[in-house]
Description:
Layout: H1 2-17, H2 26-33, H3 41-62, H4 72-81, H5 83-93, H6 105-111, H7 114-128, H8 137-146, H9 148-171, H10 186-193
Helix pairs in contact: 1-5, 3-4, 3-7, 3-9, 4-5, 5-9, 7-10, 8-9
Amino acid sequence: xxxxxxWLLLLAYAVFxxxxxxxxxPVMEQVFAGNWNEIDPLVLTVFNSLGIFxxxxxxxxxxxxxxxxxAWPFSxxxxxxxxxxxxxxxxxxxxxxxxxxxxxxxxxxxLRSNIWLILLLIFFFGxxxxxxxxxxxxxxxxxxxxxxxxxxxxxxxxxxxxxxxNAVHRFYPDANRKGLAWIPIxxxxxxxxxxxxxx
Length: 199
């Protein structure tokens, strides 16, 4: 029920409440034009992380895809829709079902490999390099107020963070160092390094 409420609130925020200019969106224009250097580094880092978060959540869900609804369609849709795509699964699909794991074995071998987990961490730390250009909270706040893209993606980022923590605690309640899951993006990946699963 709580995920359904969050999903409805997210939709309401995106449609009715998100701040931003009534005309053209300045950040979205720069994104579509490919003018990455014109985008605030912190805004760009958050924007890019919305492509890494779904990889992390996909890894967790597909390693445990035994629930009522298959997780893979929602996981794949999250690359375009973020939390908008994942919340319905968390709300309705994450129910126990008497069935085996859906994920093909060859995909499981990849998702359970340390090489894949290291690759996710490389994506994460590579994205952080953008911040070497400088961090301006005032610049981010200005972009948040002027761009509906930035305001919605910020809320989306925080919800994805919460979903990733929830997924770790849901599927790996006995995992060592599961408190690391609270570290955005990298934390759940680090937890998976300590998880032992039947192959």
